[in-house]
Write a structure and sequence with these properties.
The structure holds 2 protein chains of 2 kinds. Chain A is 72% helix and 4% strand. Chain A has 11 helices and 4 strands. Chain A has a two-stranded antiparallel sheet with strand order 1-4. Chain B has a domain at 40-248. Chain B has helices spanning 2-24, 27-52, 60-88, 93-124, 130-148, 167-185, 188-198, 200-205, 210-236, 246-259, 264-280, 288-302; strands spanning 158-159, 238-239. In chain B, helix 2 packs across helix 10. The longest helix of chain B has 32 residues, at 93-124. Chain B is globular, with a radius of gyration of 20 Å. The chains are: A mainly alpha, B mainly alpha. The interface between A and B is large, with 45 and 45 residues.
Chain lengths: 300, 327
């Protein structure tokens, strides 16, 4: 029982990282109907920006929680900027083209970030400095959580809650909801659709960057291709929860994280990468709209 | 008689080239040539799905892997023994090995087609990008399974496959795929596929069974991806799961996109160019993938229909003929 609970703790922590990445996928899909394949690579960039920021703040030699927070914020901010640039340069020109072109563009951007990253950062693994030394906190007999896991959980919950408040209660957030329903109607109501789309990319990118830094805190090896698998799995998590649905992305991320940790613990770690896609095929067979999604009937 | 003329000429030409080419091409160029043939098969078969039908499959490497490993396992467990028995019964080795190669290719392609059916049926019923993500997932699952099954070599790879495939077989398959695609494009069924690509709702309203057609096109594409995989296995005589990653799928997609989705000659040309280009660019191979990525993005922004669009190169009129509805 205690192993199961321990796995559950690990699964929820890992799942909250997926949830953070999945939020960006689901928001962009909700507004543009585009699978932003490059999103997982923003997560990678976030980790690398975090690495350079912590060198800049000299956080490796003299770690402190304030510096860790500064690193997180710098990474989120710069990644938001990168997200904006990508949207403006690559996605905006193909917005009116068939969706296939947009999808291929997204794949192109993803390849560009991975291989460009390999050129700039080097292909080898880099070590992310220990910004917060690890401590283990016992929850109950046989179940413990590390302070890093706790930070991951707390930061993700804060970010998700903040996003929910933002989308539901601010003018920009409401405009985002309007744009996701209909670009045309939203623009007739005086909403600048272009600005909202750019803004959505910025928010999604900063959340992915946060996930990148949080993961790097726990498992400090980072490399330019690290975003591919988590990106794909986070997308599956978004589909699982119902793509375009914000609470769905969080639930999907948690389900995915728990499923992966359980497969690793009880079956075999080698099947870890496969479970995500098995889940995907099952959900498409049983409930293609996802757990929280509503089936949309298409109008002619 | 006329309809048998083109296949007959192709067959004779292939046999003649098969005998003469290895004599004056050095082994390196010859291997690149073989890869060109395999890539033509892959690109045209993916074009059936992405270009003709407008669906988006990004797991072609997965089907190729299924076919490669399936056919290689057949050859290594049964094919070699049967071929040896046939040779012992005084059949010429060329015939015995050819027959067994054909059997293994059909089996590998069949295996890939079955996977294609299993993957395609649930996802092609849905509209939109689900096929993309499911095929991607399938490609990864296949790779993880191959990595974990010791009987097929796991991560070490599978050595010792007899080298039965040669120029003749590789380009015969390529010619068959091209012939099939051309005939399909000019048939009722091909028109149905184009109709689905151009407007699925309108096609359905006109009585086209969209799901059946999409699944058929997808299964056909998977079959030939599997056959291409089988040829790959029987030419290189060694398989490794790291060949069949997502990047391999992207390579094939780049061929289809560059050539123009829906254009058969476009796919063939792009397959040739994109196989030769990396060999020519070996000097700057660090930048190869970056260039690839930039090419995809710029192409999509400036010319989303690809170099050829849906047009075909033809002798009679250069770029005059247009197939299907235009976008």
């Amino acid at each position: 029982m205690s192993t199961f609970l321990q796995q559950l703790v690990n699964g929820v922590t890992w799942g909250s990282v997926y949830a953070l990445i999945a939020l960006g996928y689901t928001m962009v899909y909700g507004i543009l109907r585009l699978i932003n394949f490059a999103h997982g690579d923003i997560y990678m960039l976030g980790a690398f920006i975090g690495l350079y920021a912590s060198r800049w703040f000299n956080a490796a030699k003299d770690p402190s929680p304030v510096k860790a927070l500064l690193v997180l914020l710098t990474s989120m901010l710069l990644s938001a900027l990168i997200g904006m640039i990508i949207e403006r340069l690559a996605y905006k020109p193909v917005r009116k083209s068939p969706r296939l072109s947009a999808l291929i563009t997204a794949i192109g951007v993803s390849l560009l970030l991975e291989n460009g990253g390999a050129l700039v950062f080097g292909e080898d693994q880099k070590f992310f400095p220990q910004l917060i030394p690890q401590k283990t906190i016992a929850l109950m007999a046989g179940v413990s959580i590390s302070n890093q896991q706790l930070i991951v959980l707390v930061v993700s919950i804060v970010l998700m809650f903040g996003l929910r408040m933002f989308v539901l209660h601010t003018r920009t957030g409401k405009a985002m909801q309007a744009v996701s329903h209909s670009h045309m109607a939203a623009s007739l109501m005086g909403i600048s659709v272009d600005r909202i789309i750019t803004f959505t990319f910025m928010i999604g990118s900063s959340l992915a960057a946060a996930a990148g830094v949080l993961v790097a805190l726990q498992s400090p090896k980072i490399e330019p291709y690290m975003g591919i698998m988590p990106g794909l799995k986070a997308f599956v998590a978004a589909v699982l929860g119902g793509i375009g649905n914000i609470p769905g992305a969080v639930v999907g991320g948690l389900v995915m994280g728990i499923a992966e940790v359980m497969v690793t613990g009880y079956l075999s770690p080698t099947y870890r990468d496969a479970i995500a896609f098995v889940l995907l095929i099952v959900i498409l067979l049983v409930r293609p709209a996802g757990i929280f999604g509503k089936a949309v009937t298409e109008k002619v | 008689m006329k309809r048998f003329l083109a296949p007959a000429i192709t067959l004779v030409a292939l046999l003649a080239l098969n005998q003469s080419l290895p004599r004056f091409l050095n082994p390196y160029y010859f291997q690149v040539l073989i890869l060109v043939g395999i890539n033509i098969t892959l690109a045209v078969s993916l074009n059936l799905v992405n270009g003709f039908t407008g669906q988006f499959s990004i797991g072609h490497a997965g089907f190729m892997a299924a076919g490669a490993y399936g056919s290689a396992m057949f050859t290594m467990t049964f094919g070699q023994k049967i071929a040896a028995a046939m040779i012992a019964a005084h059949l010429p080795p060329v015939v015995a090995q050819g027959a067994m190669l054909l059997a293994s290719l059909l089996l590998g392609g069949g295996l890939a087609a079955i996977f294609g059916y299993l993957v395609g049926l649930p996802s092609l019923r849905l509209r939109g990008d689900y096929l993309a993500i499911v095929t991607l997932g399938f490609g990864e699952i296949i790779r993880v399974i191959i990595l974990n099954v010791d009987a097929v070599g796991g991560a070490r790879g599978l050595p010792g496959i007899p080298q039965w495939a040669n120029f003749f077989w590789v380009f015969l398959v390529a010619a068959i795929v091209i012939g099939l695609a051309v005939n399909l494009a000019n048939s009722t069924h091909g028109r149905a596929l184009f109709a689905i690509r151009d407007d699925e709702i309108a096609a359905e309203a006109l009585g086209v069974d969209t799901t059946a057609y999409k699944v058929t096109a997808f299964v056909l594409g998977s079959f030939f991806a599997g056959v291409a995989g089988g040829l790959f296995a029987h030419y290189l005589s060694y398989l490794n799961p790291s060949t069949f990653t997502f990047l391999k799928s992207i390579e094939v997609i780049a061929m289809v996109v560059l050539g123009g989705m829906g254009s058969i000659t476009g796919s063939v040309l792009a397959a040739i160019v994109l196989t030769l280009l990396p060999e020519a660019l070996r000097a700057v191979k660090d930048y190869r993938m970056v260039l690839y990525a930039l090419m995809l993005i710029i192409l999509m922004i400036t010319r989303p229909q690809g170099l050829m669009g849906t047009r075909e190169l033809s002798w009679a009129l250069f770029g005059g003929r247009r197939r299907g509805g235009s976008k």
